Amino acid sequence: MQWDKMSKSKLNGVDPSGVVERHGIEVVRLTMLANVGPHRARKWEENDGIMRGIIAWQFKLIRLGENLIEWSRDQASNNGWQLMIGPDQDPLWYAKNGKGRSQFCITHENTLNLVNSYYNDTFVLSAAISRLQETTELLRRSSISSGGPGPRSFVYLRVLADLIVMLTPLAPILSCELWSQLQHACQLQSPSAHLHDQLNALRTSSSHWSTQWPYDLTKPVLDQQFPVFSDIVADAEVRNASLEPAAQQSSQ
């Protein structure tokens, strides 16, 4: 990689190839895009809080995939991996008090709309990264180790798959690794397992996203359709929510 700086700032630069060699291209890219809007210059500080946060987030994502594989392996040696689907079964569908949708679902629906808007309209990629980090924490708080249903819940599995696909434009190498973990976890179940029958049935479903599986696990993540949510009832709330982060970015 050949590069040079203007004479007045020759002593203020860093060799980008050295940074990439130390941290990897995906960490560097995400660090450059995080925390600031596309219209602002960002002062580069290696190993600052932003980069440490990105590295920690990357570790959390990989751990989610590893936990999924461990869960699937345990289920394969027991009764098999069977999903809880729909409001009558899935504990992540309704709020804990049984009244209305769960915060898990509402948050993810907002994220689907906002991330699509950030990618297609406002191009505020720092806000997209922030939303994907929130989704990661949402999944971690709902994992089995945290007392949640984890991958027994179809909504959990769907949100994990959505997260991986939404990450692809920002970190394609990492998302390919995570998608391979998801594929491997499902392949650990025998071809006749309930899991495959359930996912195949939900692929042809045209109902609400929380009972629909739009992905083909025989194909790589780059060939998957990008997740969307266009429920008319939720659109008004999401439209209002989408204005606030963009306004905050433009005012900085």
TrEMBL record:
It is an enzyme of class 6 (ligase). Keywords: Aminoacyl-tRNA synthetase, ATP-binding, Ligase, Nucleotide-binding, Protein biosynthesis. GO terms for cellular component: mitochondrion. Its EC number is 6.1.1.4. GO terms for biological process: leucyl-tRNA aminoacylation; mitochondrial translation. InterPro entries: Leu-tRNA-ligase, tRNAsynth_Ia_anticodon-bd. Belongs to the class-I aminoacyl-tRNA synthetase family. Gene3D superfamilies: Isoleucyl-tRNA Synthetase, Domain 1. This is leucine--tRNA ligase. It comes from Fasciola hepatica (Liver fluke).
